[in-house]
Amino acid sequence: MENLSINQLHELAHKWTKQLEHYLNDAVSLRKKIHASPRVSGDELDTKQLVEEAMQIELSDVAETGGITRFGPERGPAVGLRGELDALPVQEQTGVDYASTNEAMHACGHDIHLAALVAVVRAAKDLPLPFAIAPFLQPREETYPSGAKDIAESGHFAELNLGAAIGAHVHPGLDSGQVAAGSGFVNAAAGEVIVEIAGAGGHGAYPHNAQDTAVCTAQIVTGLSEILRRTSDPMSPAVLSVGTISVGDGAANVLPGKGLIKATVRSTSQECNREISKAVKQFAKYTARSFECTADVSYIEGEPALINDDILSSNFKNYAEHNGLETSTTMRSLGADDFSFYGELVPSLMCFVGVDEERSLHDPRFLPSEDAIRHVAVALISGYLSASQMFIENNSQ
């Protein structure tokens, strides 16, 4: 394959995208099936089996409810293409005839990603691929423990000789038909801070005979923003956002004995996150002590920062535009995606694909149109071609 030219890769792109059209109707139907019967993190086996059947290829089990395989040329590296299996515990409010029939929802576009991946694989089977494709279905993208971390630690990447990993994710921050795959930092390192407050409960009429954990919990929450100011470099972005505050059982006249705070921490590195979590622990401990309460703080380390490979990113622009997508400026945010675990093993590229949807990801009304399936599929194909060029150029040096 060392004599393969860029022009030949462009010819392959033309054949592949043309072949793709034959499978898009089936992909739309598959998307609706997946969307109507979503499965939350850790319960994705039904979705995995449905996608595997539609892909018409046998997968090896990985990460409990996930699957992975390799097809195409037996020699040389393979390009990994990811699809995420899990939905969110969100009550759907779209009103479409294929809306979720349970209390979960594909409100992050994973149904689109899976349908696109199936179309890409089906279209590729009869093509003269220069390098193998390794499609893999990943569980638990939306929660911990991370499905990507489990796959990365499983040894399958080495066994299947993956030389690159490509992901594509729909995003309402871009117009339909646009794609962003800039190099360098694109998503944050993430983690969760959990604070458990305890004290003696009592009657609301006699607060002097109890420790008021409700006020203590509130005081800790309102002080968290100060921790960022004192801990993180203002030139390096970081957020500490509270998602859950829990005290009491619904009574107005009972002083609760326990409080709970759950917060997400995001920054450009796990080292920074750990420093922030240590500062939270110190602050919560002494704030609680001032209320004669105790505070136990734990930190759950999540995804590392997502870094797009420079070479893959540079190559991608050419193929994406050749395949009819408009490349946009780099998207960088303190969002997080466990796709970043793959980047610690092989060069990786995350592509953000625009959709005609004004609502945000995770909104109960989020519903990209069918066009998104084709655009995500084309982004995955462009990513594969970008990796192929990288393999060829590395082999010729």
Keywords:
397 residues; alpha/beta; eight-stranded mixed beta sheet
Folded structure, characterized:
The protein has helices at 6-20, 24-36, 45-55, 110-124, 147-153, 156-159, 213-231, 270-290, 310-322, 340-343, 371-396, and strands at residues 60-62, 66-68, 78-84, 132-138, 162-171, 178-180, 184-187, 189-198, 202-203, 238-247, 254-255, 258-267, 294-301, 306-308, 326-327, 348-354. The chain is of the alpha/beta class. It has an 8-stranded mixed sheet with strand order 1-2-4-3-5-16-6-15, sandwiched between helices. A hairpin with a 3-residue loop joins strand 1 and strand 2. The longest helix has 26 residues, at 371-396. It is elongated, with a radius of gyration of 23 Å. 50% of the residues are buried. The mean pLDDT is 96.
Characterize this entry briefly.
This protein is α/β, with parallel strands linked by helices. Helices cover about 35% and strands about 25% of the residues. The longest helix is centred in the C-terminal third of the chain and has 26 residues.
Helix and strand arrangement:
Layout (H helix, E strand, L loop, with lengths): L5 H15 L3 H13 L8 H11 L4 E3 L3 E3 L9 E7 L25 H15 L7 E7 L8 H7 L2 H4 L2 E10 L6 E3 L3 E4 L1 E10 L3 E2 L9 H19 L6 E10 L6 E2 L2 E10 L2 H21 L3 E8 L4 E3 L1 H13 L3 E2 L12 H4 L4 E7 L16 H26 L1
Parallel strand pairs: 3-4, 3-5, 5-16, 6-15
Antiparallel strand pairs: 1-2, 2-4, 6-16, 7-14, 8-12, 8-13, 9-11, 10-12
Helix pairs in contact: 1-4, 1-11, 2-4, 3-4, 4-11, 7-8, 9-11
